[in-house]
Amino acid sequence: MPRPRKQRLCQAFEGDPVFKPRSIPMTELTTEEMGLSELEAMRLCDLEDLDQQEAGERMGVSRGTVQRLLKTGRAKVVRTLVTNQALVIRKGEEDAHLRTNGN
User: Fold this and answer.
1) N or C end of the chain: smaller count of CB under 10 Å?
2) CATH number assigned to the domain comprising residue 23
C-alpha cells in the first residue's frame, strides 16, 4: 500500500486557468494539464528565486518533491509553447491545500 500523499501548501490561484495560442479555437487544440502544485513550485523557485529546499519548506514537502514538480511543470510549459497546445491549470484534490492568507 502506498504512503498517503502529503498536503501541499499552495498560494490560491486566481488567474485564468487556460493559456492557449491566439486565433486557434480550443476545439482544435490538444491540452496539457498542469497541477497547481507544479505551478506553485515554479512560482517559488523561478519567480521568488527561492532554492528548492526553501520552496519545499513553504509547500510542506521535501526538496526532492519540489525538484520533481519543477521538472514536470517546466516540461509541460515548454511542450505547450513548442507544439501549440493549450495549457490548463487544474486544482485537483491531490494537488494542494490552498493558503487563504495569500502567503
Assistant:
1) N
2) 1.10.10
d(CA 22, CA 26): 10
Residue span of the structural domain in which 78 resides? 16-92
Q: Is residue 5 part of a domain?
A: no
**Is this prediction's pTM over 0.85?**
no
State residue 92's pLDDT score: 61
- List pLDDT tens digits, range 36-73: 999 999 999 999 999 999 999 999 999 999 999 999 99
What's the mean pLDDT when you consider all of the chain? 86
The reply to whether 2 falls in a domain is no
The total number of structural domains in the chain stands at 1
pLDDT over 70 percentage in the chain: 86
Q: For cell 476545439, what's the residue? A: 27
Q: What is the DSSP string of 34-82?
A: EEHHHHHHHIIIIIS---HHHHHHHHTS-HHHHHHHHHHHHHHHHHHHH
